[in-house]
Specification:
about 850 residues; 8-stranded antiparallel β-sheet; about 20% strand
Length: about 850
């Protein structure tokens, strides 16, 4: 087949499709093509063919050319809301046309005053069969001038029905303007991400959900009932995700909820919980005794209609500035609070979010309603990705929505004046609520929902607040003022304990405080077991300001510097000078003590705009750690050079994350040696690895031949060994690094390191677990790196032990058949050590 020439359907300025101010077209979700900013009000046929779709609002038309090419022409952007005003059709569906025939006449001036833009995309919607070989852009064209040359790609492969389970669901469309081009494109983009054949049916017509033109052709309007059907392995997930996308309104202006056909579930009746023990998931360790104080999150009511665009724009801008100032004030303090505040600031300054809210105000909505609708659109888009790791971002957006609405309405949180030392109970907590708490007045946090890796959990740990999450709905039955014993270490909340239990807990807590005060006095001394065996105790750091606090708590060095703080929440990667300055400041803060710098651990749940990692079905098994560094070697080389600039040379050691084979370490070693040669660095620099994958643990003997040291990351190692995602609250409660399978891999790693003369450390969460530390030492670990807050107690514990006792404990732990057995063994051992 010869090349196909499409002519300009309208006179105007031809521009690249990427410049269309709408991501559906700019990101080619509908297909490839060209955009024209028209200077005349007649849209003409770009080729000979048949009119297959004429939009009910007359703002768009699709032609199927004689060659089979399908061309969509969309007059202006967001013109569906005009409901045909200013448009006059000159053709009907099914009509044959010749190139240049008038299709639609439109009133330029009338439309320009009401539409987002007059830019008119001309799209090839069956891009699997045709590609754009050449196109005209950045110049004026006349109607009938050559605009695009298309090249046939050959017959598209026949669609085969994917075997697998079937699923079906009926949905009532809430979109005020029905399913037009933008929502059709989003439906198709989502459907393509599933291994299933998905169809949309309405009015006895049916289309593949993966065809935006086919979905548009169904002419689905607000309130129409449609049926989503799917077959294949992902059938159920596909139908659920598409239903949630459509029912959520997709952020379309004017999306109105439609009554559901199924009744809403009856709220669970509340009952007073006077006594008992609730079990949850540990989010931050510690013990607290105090009265229950309920923190209630009430829904903030906002008016729908505005008081005029000028007034509402001013109100929104003022509220945004107030919230921005509050967040900016947090970025200069505690590193953890600063990082979370920075994430919220990035959302607050998102131009698309602001533009969506401004459009809502221009349509007559109040500032609060427009802001809530804009946030909801983003939330629905993230939820539609079907990626659990986006849940944290959704929580951040909802929190940001609430912060702005609270300023607009003057409403705050509904709750109680908590007594000193109270244990806060809540169904959910937002990061901003936790950051507003005074940790000196609060005993701990208990949350019915949530997961152990959320921002709330991270904040609680950084503030030194014991915290349990996922306690379940029974938590909300706890009476205000009830006496509570929160033992986050054991994962339990005891409600209204009797006098004996309360007295025992108070005695144990008092002894704990006394031991901590004594441990803090000797924290600066090197850590040795009672028989003289040396165990190095280092700190995990994530920002410059944490080094001084770590040293004050007895850190003998930094066993893990998470360099992600330099790379996250920014549009471009930090250059060599910026990185070198930050690493030098941390090295100075450590006063010459060893600094182990982990190279960038990107990927997974750490998205970065300048690292466009494609969407992955399971990010934990995709481009992560060293794989990203070898995929983008210039990024890794810049970081290696920055580390080598730290003085004195040799204070810094380099650690490579997520290594699974010796070849990966060898590749990094070659880059490091190249950087040393170029920079004239003659002092050897240690290069080690994190043992985080089962493959690395099993081949630790091979890796140790090339590595200068091995450091075990127990968090990731545990989730991979147990095949449980630590970011999924549904299974996170069963993740425990003291599982016998994990302990056996740690032992194998230690034996491999000892055989090659390499020291082995642990820098994962298990290193700061007082029950686990003696077992790790008994397995052969000689360096433990944990959060700065636990270092004094950790060193005090180790000083009371002998290497022989630790080895005996480790041997007995390896013989256990379950985590519960290991934990019981470790608790008995620790109680004996405390005596």
């Amino acid at each position: 087949m010869t090349d196909i020439v499409l002519v300009a359907p309208v006179a105007g300025w031809a521009t690249p499709l990427s410049e269309a101010p709408d991501p559906v077209f700019a990101e080619r979700m509908m297909g490839d093509g060209v955009a024209v900013d028209p200077i005349e009000g007649v849209l003409r046929a770009p080729c000979d063919g048949v009119v297959t779709i004429l939009a009910p609002a007359l703002h768009a038309v699709t032609i199927r050319g004689e060659s089979g090419v399908e061309v969509l022409m969309h007059i202006g952007l967001e013109t569906v809301a005009l409901k045909g005003e200013g448009f006059t059709a000159r053709v009907t569906e099914g009509q044959a046309v010749k190139a240049g025939d008038p299709l639609i006449e439109f009133d330029l001036d009338r439309i320009a005053g009401r539409a987002k833009s007059l830019i008119t995309p001309i799209i090839i919607t069956n891009g699997d069969a045709f590609e754009v070989a050449t196109r005209v852009t950045d110049r004026e064209v006349k109607a009938g001038d050559p605009l695009m040359t298309l090249r046939a790609l050959g017959a598209a492969a026949e669609t085969t029905q994917t075997a697998g389970p079937a699923a079906e669901r009926q949905v009532v469309t809430p979109l005020a303007h029905g399913i037009h081009a933008r929502p059709a494109a989003r439906i198709a983009a989502l459907a393509k991400g599933f291994d299933a054949e998905v169809t949309v049916a309405a009015f006895n017509r049916r289309s593949s959900a993966k065809s935006p033109v086919g979905v548009m052709a169904l002419a689905i309007r607000h309130g129409d009932a449609i049926t989503l059907s799917a077959s294949g392995p992902d059938a159920a997930r596909a139908v659920q995700a598409l239903a949630e996308l459509i029912e959520g309104g997709m952020g379309e202006a004017g999306a109105a909820p439609v009554p559901k056909t199924t009744p809403a579930p009856t709220p669970r009746p509340r009952r007073a919980l006077h006594t008992g023990v609730l079990r949850g998931v540990t989010a931050a360790p510690g013990v607290a005794i105090g009265q229950a104080a309920r923190l209630i999150r009430t829904e903030i009511e906002v008016a729908v209609d505005g008081r005029g665009a000028r007034v509402e724009h001013a109100a929104l801008n003022g509220a945004l500035e107030t919230v921005r100032e509050r967040l900016q004030a947090l970025t200069g303090g505690d590193a953890t609070r600063g990082a979370i505040a920075g994430a919220h600031l990035a959302f607050l300054d998102d131009p698309e979010l602001l533009a969506s809210a401004q459009r809502g105000i221009n349509e007559g909505r109040s500032a609060g309603h427009a802001w809530r609708t804009a946030i909801d659109g983003f939330v629905q888009a993230l939820n539609a990705l079907g990626d659990r790791r986006m849940a944290e971002r959704v929580d951040d957006l909802k929190d940001l929505e609430r912060q702005v609405l609270a300023v607009l309405t003057g409403e705050g949180e509904s709750g109680t004046d908590a007594p000193l030392g109270a244990v806060i109970i809540a169904e959910e907590l937002a990061p901003s609520q936790v950051m507003a708490l005074d940790p000196s007045r609060i005993g701990g946090l208990c949350i019915a929902r949530g997961g152990p890796t959320s921002h709330v959990a991270i904040l609680a740990a950084s503030m030194g607040l014991p915290c349990l999450v996922a306690l379940g709905e029974d938590l909300m039955d706890v009476m205000d003022g009830a006496a509570l014993i929160l033992d986050a270490d054991a994962g339990t909340l005891r409600v209204s304990p009797d006098a004996a239990a309360l007295g025992a807990a108070q005695t144990a807590l008092a002894r704990r405080h006394q031991r901590h005060a004594a441990a803090l006095e000797t924290a600066g001394e090197d850590c040795r077991l009672s028989d003289g065996a040396r165990i190095e105790v280092f700190a995990n750091l994530g920002a410059v300001g944490e080094a001084g606090r770590a040293v004050a708590n007895g850190a003998e060095g930094c066993g893990l510097l998470r360099t992600e703080f330099l790379f996250l929440e920014r549009e471009t990667a930090p250059d060599e000078d910026e990185q070198a300055a930050q690493y030098q400041a941390i090295a100075d803060g450590l006063g010459g003590r060893p600094l182990i710098v982990r190279t960038l651990d990107a990927g997974g749940d750490k998205p970065m705009p300048y690292l466009p990692i494609p969407h992955e079905e399971n990010p934990a098994l995709g481009l992560r750690g060293v794989r990203v560094g070898l995929w983008r070697p210039q990024l890794l080389m810049t970081q290696l050079r920055a580390i080598l600039r730290v003085t004195p040379t040799g204070q810094c050691r380099i650690m490579v994350p997520m290594v699974a084979s010796p070849d990966e370490l060898a590749a990094v070693r070659r880059m490091l040696e190249e950087a040393r040669r170029d920079m004239g660095v003659t002092t050897p620099v240690q290069l080690g690895v994190m043992i985080e994958t089962p493959a690395a643990a099993v081949t630790a003997d091979l890796i140790a031949e090339q590595a200068d040291f091995l450091s075990i990351g127990t968090n990731d190692l545990t989730q991979y060994v147990l095949a449980r995602d630590r970011g999924n609250p549904a299974v996170a409660a069963d993740i425990d690094g003291l599982h016998p399978a994990v302990l056996r891999l740690i032992r194998q790693t230690c034996e491999a390191g000892q055989a090659k003369g390499r020291w082995v450390g642990v820098c994962g969460g298990l290193a700061g677990d007082m029950a686990a530390a003696p077992i790790l030492v008994g397995l052969g670990v000689t360096e433990l790196s944990a959060a700065p807050a636990v270092l004094p107690d950790l060193k005090a514990l180790l000083r009371g032990l002998t290497l022989e006792a630790c080895r005996d404990l480790a041997a007995r732990a390896l013989a256990c058949s379950s985590v519960d057995e290991v934990r019981a063994l470790a608790d008995d051992f620790r109680r004996g050590a405390d005596r």
